[in-house]
Amino acid sequence: MQVNLTVNGRPHSLLVEPRTHLADMLRETLNLTGTHLGCEQGVCGACTVLVDGKPQRSCITFAVDCGGAEVTTIEGFDADPTMTALREAFSAHHALQCGFCTPGMLVTARDVVLRLGETTEARLREELAGNLCRCTGYVGIVDAVTAVAAGRQPQAQQAVVATAAREAAPLLQAAEREATPTLMPAGGAMLEERVALAAAPEAAWAALADLRRVATCLPGAQLDSIEGERVAGRVGVALGPIKASFAGTGSVTLDEASRTGKLIGRGRDGASSAEGEVGWQVLPGAGGGSTLVVQLSWRLTGPLAQFGRAALVRDLVRRLAQQFAANLDAMVAGQAAPPARPLGLFALLWGLLKARLLGR
Ligand code: FES
Ligand code: FES
Predict the structure, then answer these.
(1) Which of 44, 109, 251, 304 would bridge with 38, disulfide CB 3.0–4.6 Å?
(2) Sequence-separated (6 or more) residues with CB below 8 Å from residue 1
(3) Is the minimum distance from the CB of 146 to ligand 2 under 6 angstroms?
(4) pLDDT per residue over 20-75, tens digit each?
(5) Are residues 267 and 274 in contact, defined by beta-carbon separation less than 8 angstroms?
(6) Which ligand approaches the C-alpha of residue 97 most closely?
(7) Is the distance from CB of 149 to CB of 119 less than 8 angstroms?
């Protein structure tokens, strides 16, 4: 089902399963992982967000019920003065240790401070009773909220001060200018990666416009045919004993003026299927080079779907993007095309693990 809603001031048009909870959509599809999941049954309050200005448990809220709603997650309060005061007070009064309960606790506390103003400790404790803290205890939390509420009058208007959104990429800014909502595959995820290229923007764009050559730079990719905007090809993936070769089709559009391109495609291998969209843009970079901005949204189903989780894929895509950038630079410099080889997911995972163990 399609749901149109606003999250942290940005419009989205998302395809979700009817059973998808708001928390899962926020975390898995929009990568807003500040919303935590504890009990997943409406008891602990860790998943609390604002829906149309009111605190709500996102773990027991269906995403499809949020059509037309304004949702604010903890990431959306960066410029909100009440939340800023609460954050500082939580820090000053030692109101958190592990921080797991903190996003939900802060969202609830902000509502209490604005709705009640200064109040008694007993009322404050009652108001906060729906948010459980498993490690800090409540003395520091109550002290912090009491300090922020001191001297305040209740406020009828509780609008969140305009969100200081995360730095938007030019692709997103362009999309927002055109009021084009983000459309993602159901249950999918989205991420953005930027890689530096040694090649100048003109040379990088010229290389990227040649899809056959580009395909040779992407590990595991093979382009079978191009007819107008239609392309057909395959991507090989291997994870230990699990191997898949996604054969599929897609459509490509290129815009020379803004040096942007977009590929929408889908493919399958037996029980696993993949669908997604990739957008790219070449921008001037440091030292006469360029910056390649890549935005991906995807959905995997079948046996390989377990590897489609955003947090895992983000690291993998970063490594893949770096490999792609190195290959593209070599191609632009007139060096031999890299040998086509499958995307070794196991090798990438091992590299990721090593990097994490070594703290790189
Ligand atoms: S995770 Fe939603 S209330 Fe506990
Ligand atoms: S700070 Fe750890 S659960 Fe509250």
Answers:
(1) 44
(2) 15, 16, 17, 18, 64
(3) no
(4) 999 999 998 888 999 999 999 999 999 999 999 999 999 999 999 999 999 999 99
(5) yes
(6) 2
(7) yes
What pLDDT, on the 0 to 100 scale, is given for residue 36? 96
* pLDDT score, position 355: 52
In the chain, the amino acid numbered 128 is L
Please say whether the beta carbons of 262 and 277 come within 8 A. Answer: yes
Going through 213-259 in order, the beta strands assigned E by DSSP cover 221-227, 230-239, 242-255
In a mutational test of the pocket of ligand 1, which residue from 21, 49, 59 has the highest number of ligand atoms less than 8 Å from its CB?
Answer: 59
Instruction: Calculate how far, in angstroms, residue 296's C-alpha sits from the geometric centre of ligand 1.
Output: 29
Q: Looking at the CA of 55, name the nearest ligand.
A: 1
Which sign does the torsion angle of CA 37, 41, 44, 49 carry? positive
At residue 145, the pLDDT reads 98
The 8-class DSSP code of residue 248 comes to E
Q: What is the pTM of this model?
A: 0.57
Of the candidate CATH numbers 3.40.50.800, 3.30.230.10, 3.10.20.30, 3.40.50.740, the domain formed by 1-166 belongs to 3.10.20.30
For a ligand 1 pocket test, name from 33, 44, 62, 73 the mutation site with the most ligand atoms within 8 angstroms of its C-beta. Answer: 44
Residue-wise pLDDT for 334-344, tens only, equals: 776 555 454 44
Closest residue (by CA) to atom 3 of ligand 1?
42
Range(s) of the chain covered by CATH 3.10.20.30: 1-166
Q: What is the per-residue pLDDT for 29?
A: 86
Q: Which residues line the pocket of ligand 1, CB cutoff 6 A?
A: 37-40, 42-47, 57, 59
Query: What are residue 222's DSSP bridge partners?
Result: 234
Query: 136 CB under 6 A from ligand 2?
Result: yes
Question: What's the topology of domain 170-357?
Answer: Alpha-D-Glucose-1,6-Bisphosphate; Chain A, domain 4 (3.30.530)
What H or E segment, with its residue span, contains residue 275? strand 272-284
Q: Where in the chain do CATH 3.30.530.20 domains reside?
A: 170-357
